[in-house]
Write the structure tokens for this entry.
Amino acid sequence: MTALTLSTSAPAALRSDAIVVAVAKGAKGRPVVVAGAEAVDKAYDGKLAAVLETLGASGGEGEVTKLPAPSGFKSPVVLAVGLGDAPEKGETFDGETLRRAAGSAARALAGAESAGFALPLDSAEYAAAIAEGALLGAYSFTTYRAGAAQKAAADQEKKDKSAPLGEVVLLGGKPKDKAYKAATERATALVGEVHRARDLVNIPSNDLFPKSFADIALAVGKEHGLKVEVLDEQDLREGGYGGLLGVGQGSANPPRLVRLVHSHPKAKKTLALVGKGITYDSGGITLKPAGHNETMKCDMSGAAAVFAAVVTAAKLGLEVNVTGWLALAENMPSGSATRPGDVLRMYSGKTVEVLNTDAEGRLVLADALTRASEEKPDAIVDVATLTGAMMLALGNRTFGIMANDDAFRTSIHEVAEEVGEQSWPMPMPRELLKAMDSTVADISNMGERMGSGLVAGLFLQEFVGEDITWAHLDIAGPAFHEGAPYGYTHKGGTGSSVRTLVRLAERIAAGELV
Ligand code: BES
Ligand code: MN
Ligand code: ZN
């Protein structure tokens, strides 16, 4: 992974591939140089903004302009990244603006060995945001590109342009200050796990299936001192996990339920995280048409986020117990697959008539939610790419939050806001339950089409233990990015919700929540 260091070096003295500065969009759409770049601006005789304007820069969000470094600089290039509109008088930039700008700069520097970031580092909070953004931007997934690796190996002279920026040097940070050190260490631990979640999502389903995912959880869990238990199909049968088995029975790759535990001797609270881990969602017998199945390797993004969050909790030694549940199955059509109209007996004992085999996420989550509830955690949060309806409602960048407790839903929304993840609270209208009535079973897995994202949440609630605080994050929109890269967001798996889950665990550890 990309190295991260704090340095007191002057920008001119740092030997690197580029010095990054920030510019904002000021009056009349003109670029204005932002704090952190004073020494660089001085080296251009105070004319950096004017030079940038000549080059056509405006300081717009994500805009990247490269120019030759002033004479005397040990780095050849200055890279100016746009922050968007300059803040009003008395206001400051928010963390996410800096996070995204650092990410845009890091992406533009792919293939470079190192860069110095001369951005506003006047608080440890800003340092954290810039560190996170730069590291998140320094990502690439090239496991399946034989060509690039071979070329790079054959020709040592040519730099591998697809390799992420190798080193991020924060200039003007305070290397000896405890808060700065803690911020950069946290950023390194956290982003390493966001990258793990992204990788897991990006690995194609022919390599990532329930057993291979569970094997990764076992190996990584061991490395980080987690307790890991895996229920295989035999265990699931003996345990009566009808939801996981029903979804997985059409596949040659049988399902798994993984339990990961981070515990701390001084912990006062336990947080349970439950992730939807459909390693491929074909829809099953209710097969998805072409155009709807090409990205369905991403349907385990919830499980990847939960896994990454538990490992981060362990890396940071958080004073809270965090149990992660990965509900892993592959949803395929075959002669052994669940048919529309079949009835499953779930782990809770409830029966479900499966009217649509493409509404499979709620079935695997139901079993995991019931199982997680048995341990009476102080709160449960499930994360899932659950419904296309949530994407229709909130778009591609915002996840929906539903909960059985309004205060908890609000808290999660605030935590997400704090870490720079877009989310929005959604309601749970009781009247939508009625349409899930089944003529043969306790409940069916289909309800009204209108509000079907909310219907899915109402279904899940039926499987959450009584009196347990619970929230459901539907990350179908932001989990997988298909548009042009922006900020620190690349194409493919995004690691959506990992930062929110980790901050939530930290807030609970600090006694601020639950
Ligand atoms: N995995 C999908 C939801 C999804 C769609 C995630 C697009 C990411 C991108 C889920 O299993 C699904 O198929 N949901 C159905 C539910 C319906 C059959 C009630 C949907 O949203 O159409
Ligand atoms: Mn589906
Ligand atoms: Zn699905």
